[in-house]
Amino acid sequence: MIALRDLEFRYEQSSFALQLPQMQLESKEHVALIGPSGCGKTTLLNLLAGILLPHAGSVEVAGESVAALSDSQRRDFRIRKLGLVFQNFELLDYLSVRDNILLPLRIGSGLSVSPALQQRTEELAQRLGIADKLDRHPAQLSQGERQRVAVSRALLLQPTVILADEPTGNLDPANKFVVLDLLLDYAREEGATLLTVTHDHDLLDRFDRVLEFNALNAWSPG
Amino acid sequence: MSGVFYLAWQYLRWHRWKASILVAAVTLVLYLPLGLQLVVEQTARDMNARADATPLLLGGRGSPLELVLNALYFSDQQPPVFDYGVVDELRNSALVDPIPLYSRYHSQQIPIVGTTLDYFAFRNLQIAQGRQLAMLGEAVLGISAAQSLGVGVGDYVVSSPESVFDIAGVYPLRMPVVGVLAASYSPDDGAIFVDLKTAWIIEGIGHGHQELTSPAAAGAVLKSEGDRIVANASLVQYNEITADNIDSFHFHGKNADLPLTAILPVPRSDKARVLIQGRYQAHDSLQLLQPRAVIKQLLDTVFAVQRYVLVAMGLVAVATTAVVLLVFLLSWRARRPEQDTLHRLGGSKAAILSLMLAEVVMVLATAAVLAALLVALTELFGGPLLKAVLL
User: Is A104 helix (H, G, I), strand (E, B) or coil?
Assistant: First the structure.
């Protein structure tokens, strides 16, 4: 479940300001967020993930009041409860596919790469069709394969909420449906909430609901 | 923390050329001053030890350094020669026990030192294999010389002609190796020792040939006037001294006129040392030296040069450190997006900083280990390097 109320945020050295009176996503809901470039969609995802903190208002994600958490609690919350997918994949070129998937465990404190998680990495890779690429590096993969690696990384710790920022923005038509279906399939099977920022109107009918960012008006697809 | 080191290792592995260059630069900065210091200290220690073990040295007047380097370290320097008669003169003084040296020739770059058995006793050189010199034309080798030539007791060494253009000069002499010395960790390990007379035969002052009155040599005789027989070049000259031909070897001229390159006068007492020094202080053609003083002069020069080199290295080290720091700082700046990704995925600022620092630590640690390894190698093998330059 995701809930925002009376949210206010502005960047220090910019005139940009975000004001959202209310937004709510039910548990297990799959929602697309659309809106023009620069309207604050990515900022909103960062606020939900606790990467940015609001100046006013409340942000509740997966039962946690994000703004009330300490810095380390927010990081732990991001690692354990959220799955983040980015438009530019954000893979580290010097790590193998396997290590990129396991990256949150290596950089997060108090976490370790257990045999069970190694096993889950293999299973995810198998499911996402990159099992034979685990020992390669991102530079040796196609765009579609890279985004599958990023999706695997997001799903590794079985998140209850997935926040995807234009996950298909850099993909060809064939791959964009594949990647989105992977996310939707996972969310359905695991009962996760999925919020996806997208510009691609071809994809909207796959979601339960679409939010237009300017007014946060919800309407039913198609 | 292990995760951070794992990531840092993966980063350095992926950027292996950049990492290797950084490691090499830091290794050199750490190693060069230490290595230089070690080499100089080791060389000074070895050279001083040799000089300390040689209280006095007598030779022809000329460069004291050339004389010391030739007589103590068997270097290629050619000090002026003087007559063997000086040995008798010193012996008759009853102040010193003279040990003559004639060190001019080589066998494949290995110095051949003509001396007497007293030299071995003076330097405390022990035979490890075979026996001591007993007959004209035999050779005893230092352990390094034997290893470098790949010969042992029962094999032969051949003196090298000094100049291929001098066809009437030094005649290659084939000498049986009768003994190999135990290691003494001194220049003696790298020398071939022969009897003084054998060294003169190598020079061509003494020689052996067919008996001129034998029927086999008849064709070589040009004219015969009483005791004087003149022969042509077809007369067979011996290039090896054997039991069969040893009697034919002879020297023309007086023994006292034969050449030496140096004498080690071993004083019988402190008083004798002072007296003998006074006696040769103002000699026209000879000089009597205290090798320690000459080596000290040489080493003072080396230490002075070393100080300048260390200052230069210090400046290079500062510049290199600045460049290495710059590389890391620029690299961190260029990797800002990566740091943002790590932060978004749950990495703390401390963890991200640790990752960057772990890379620096790994580069520095690898460089320190390599530098330590090089220092250890220098400790083992560095000494001969500077000696090779100096000698």
Answer: helix
Find the angle CA(A30)-CA(A31)-CA(A35) to the nearest 5 degrees: 160
Q: Which residues of A107-141 are buried (b: 16+ CB within 10 A; e: fewer)?
A: bbbebebeeebeebbeebbebbebeebbeebbeeb
User: Among all residues of chain A, which has the CA nearest to that of B2?
Assistant: A106
- How does pLDDT run across B58-78, given as a tens digit for each residue? 999 999 999 999 999 998 888
pLDDT along chain A (222 residues), means of 10: 90 85 91 88 92 93 92 90 90 95 85 87 90 94 91 93 91 84 92 93 91 62 42
**Could you tell me how many residues make up chain A?**
222
Nearest-CB residue to B346 (from A75, A95, A137): A75
CB-based contact, A51 to chain B, within 8 Å: yes
CATH number of residue A168's parent domain: 3.40.50.300
Residue A107: its chain B contacts at CB < 8 A?
A: 3-4, 7, 342, 345-347, 351-352, 355
B10–A75 C-beta distance less than 8 A: no
Return d(Cα B5, Cα B357) in angstroms, integer: 9
What is the Cα–Cα distance from A187 to A194, expressed in whole angstroms?
7
d(Cα B130, Cα B125) in Å, to the nearest integer?
14
CA torsion through residues A129, A134, A140, A146, sign: positive
**Tokens 């960012």 appear where?**
A213
Domain count, chain A: 1
Domain that holds residue A58: 2-219
Instruction: Spell out the domain ranges in chain B.
Output: 2-46+301-390, 56-208+254-289, 210-248
ipTM over 0.85: yes
How close B147 comes to chain A (CA, Å)? 50
Which pLDDT tens digit goes with each residue over B162-195?
Answer: 665 655 556 688 999 999 999 998 999 999 999 9
Q: pTM for the complete prediction?
A: 0.71
